[in-house]
Design the sequence.
């Protein structure tokens, strides 16, 4: 039997029966159903979070692993960025100090690609789009900088190879070893105006006379190609080597020539023997260095076996006027 409800009406001073409309009943039922559905949804959601299914557990574990891998990759990107910038700084130092060239322009190094946003397709993802776009942009910048650095290192290698060739070519040692000389290097007849050995008058002497016993080996002072190996009345038997980079060296008054024209020689290679052919008063090697067609003081290119102090003293003594052994 359905229970009936009454209420006391204060206006009529009577108990009256409670009358509930169908609309009220429907609203009450609807409210109950909504509450039940919401409660069931919240319960299901909570149960999935607190008690996930085996499949959900696997997915949640994979998400955690992806987060850890992402953080590790991001750390590697940061370290790679620092290493690459350190290499670029050292590259710039090599260009400026060693080779005297301009390094990679900072604007080019740090610059982007320009144009439209090439990461727009990442940004369509609301939750992770900006993150994905940021990481991809950094990776693309590192790849571009790696390519720039690779090209720059190729340039340095080419410059270093060319520098090595140049250093090997420029005359830098004495044509006769110091232990084979008749007298101390400090007493050699040097570059400049000297007393003519025959006419006893001052005359320009374009080289240095290295006095040595007849038959002492003469060595090439730098790598190059023989462009003359001949005899004339002045230098007698003599050799001229073209070292490239504007340098040539001449070796005169030889008793024998051991190279031929067109032959490539390396620094320290024997090219002949000391003699006294041509206009000469005693066995010696007359040595000249020419830079871009003009004779220069060879003493500046005789740096082997000398300390900086000895070299400076040798330069000073070589400027003292004395008698040459040839002309």
Sequence:
């Amino acid at each position: 039997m359905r229970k009936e409800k009454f209420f006391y009406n204060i206006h009529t001073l009577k108990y009256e029966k409670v009358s509930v409309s169908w609309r009220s009943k429907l609203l009450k039922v609807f409210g109950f159903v909504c509450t039940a559905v919401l409660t069931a949804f919240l319960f299901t959601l909570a149960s999935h979070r607190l008690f996930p299914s085996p499949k959900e557990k696997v997915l949640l574990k994979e998400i955690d692993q992806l987060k850890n891998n992402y953080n590790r990759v991001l750390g590697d990107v940061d370290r790679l960025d620092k290493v690459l910038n350190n290499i670029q700084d050292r590259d710039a130092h090599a260009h400026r100090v060693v080779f005297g060239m301009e390094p990679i322009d900072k604007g080019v190094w740090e610059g982007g690609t320009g144009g439209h946003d090439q990461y727009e397709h990442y940004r369509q993802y609301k939750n992770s789009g900006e993150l994905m776009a940021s990481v991809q942009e950094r990776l693309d910048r590192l790849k571009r900088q790696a390519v720039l650095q690779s090209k720059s290192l190729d340039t340095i290698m080419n410059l270093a190879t060319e520098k090595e060739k140049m250093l090997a070519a420029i005359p830098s040692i004495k044509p006769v070893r110091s232990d084979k000389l008749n007298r101390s290097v400090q007493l050699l007849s040097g570059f400049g105006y000297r007393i003519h050995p025959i006419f006893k008058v001052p005359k320009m002497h374009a080289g240095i006379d290295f006095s040595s016993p007849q038959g002492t080996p003469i060595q090439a002072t730098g790598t190059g190609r023989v462009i003359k190996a001949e005899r004339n009345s002045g230098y007698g038997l003599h050799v001229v080597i073209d070292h490239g980079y504007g340098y040539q060296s001449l070796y005169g008054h030889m008793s024998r020539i051991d190279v031929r024209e067109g032959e490539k020689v390396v620094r320290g290679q024997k090219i002949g023997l000391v003699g006294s052919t041509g206009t000469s008063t005693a066995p010696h090697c007359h040595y000249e260095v020419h830079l871009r067609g003009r004779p220069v003081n060879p003493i500046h290119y005789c740096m082997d076996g000398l300390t900086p102090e000895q070299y400076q003293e040798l330069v000073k003594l070589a400027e003292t006027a004395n008698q040459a052994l040839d002309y």
User: Anything to note?
Assistant: The mean pLDDT is 76. Residues 6-50 form one domain. Helices lie at 22-50, 54-98, 106-110, 120-123, 129-169, 308-318. Residues 256 and 273 are 5 Å apart (CA to CA).
